[in-house]
Amino acid sequence: MRFAKKTCVVTGGGSGIGRATCLQMAREGAQVVVADLQLAAAQATVATIEAAAGVAIAVQVDVGNSDQVQAVINAAVARFGSIDAIVNDAAMMSFTPIVDIAEADFFHVIGTNLGSVFLFTKYGVPHMPAGGAIVNLSSVHAHATTANVVPYASSKGAIEAFTRGAAIELASRKIRINAIAPGAVDTPMLWNNPNVKSGVEKVQGAIGKPEELAAAICFLASDESSFVNGTTLVVDGGRLDALA
Ligand SMILES: NC(=O)c1ccc[n+]([C@@H]2O[C@H](COP(=O)([O-])OP(=O)(O)OC[C@H]3O[C@@H](n4cnc5c(N)ncnc54)[C@H](O)[C@@H]3O)[C@@H](O)[C@H]2O)c1
User: Has residue 2 been placed in a domain?
Assistant: First the structure.
């Protein structure tokens, strides 16, 4: 029960990796704040947790919106008193060549993926006691990528740099921050990706389950990883090691 009496905020908790993380944390005793753009999806995760006698609340949020992020933090603190772990899982992709992408669309991806990590760190950390942990979702696209996803790949690369720098700053508070770079994982985000649908991005043979990512996230969010800080753990079934 690594999360007994701990409060965990998970963005993107309505689907895929975020949902699996919420369920795993709840099984291990956490009070889970399930935050998602899709309120019904967040509520479905909460219902699953409650059906197993767990504790969770659903909060609707656009993670790129500062007021809404602060509302999530306030809701978590109002209900549970403090925050022990934050998992920045929610993200979006776009699929347009750089010279064609609208400026607003580029900054929307950056604001959603990277801006959310900044906002949840800035507004969440003051409510985290010593021993707290933040886990940010990067991607193998921070390390090797395909055409037409530069905003996404850039945001994920920046999340890893953010994680390194923030680890230095948060060390004096005894709060750790790490990142996970998943490979292909069996979620709606993977199968809705036009590059995957077209075969431009090949994923055969190396597809993970959301629960396999949740296991790694829970390791980094718990005291079990107390000497791991500022790093990115690649969880991709070995995909990045292959030449093709
Ligand atoms: N699935 C993969 O193959 C894969 C690979 C590498 C990295 N990742 C990363 O893992 C994380 C989770 O992805 P997933 O595959 O579980 O995706 P998913 O599509 O299954 O779930 C994403 C969730 O985030 C929510 N969301 C999207 N935009 C949001 C916003 N602005 N505010 C709040 N919530 C929002 C969605 O409603 C959804 O519930 C993402 O950061 C993604 O980049 C996934």
Answer: no
Domain count, the chain: 1
Tokens of 131: 């021993």
SS3 of 191-234: HCCHHHHHCCCCCCCCCECHHHHHHHHHHHHCHHHCCCCCCEEE
The 10s digit of each residue's pLDDT in 39-84 is 999 999 999 999 999 999 999 999 999 999 999 999 999 999 999 9
Any idea which residues carry the catalytic annotation? 152
Partnered with residue 33 across adjacent β-strands are: 9, 57
CATH of the domain at 67: 3.40.50.720
C-beta 148 within 6 A of ligand 1: no
Q: Is residue 241 part of a domain?
A: no
Assess whether the C-beta atom of 15 lies below 6 angstroms from ligand 1.
yes
Asked if residues 42 and 72 have their Cβ atoms less than 8 Å apart, the reply is no
Structural tokens at position 84: 């022990």
Q: Give the pTM.
A: 0.98
Angle between helices 39-51 and 16-27 (to 10 degrees): 30
- The Å distance, Cα 197 to ligand 1 centre, comes to 17
Give the residue, by CA position, lying nearest to ligand 1 atom 31: 62
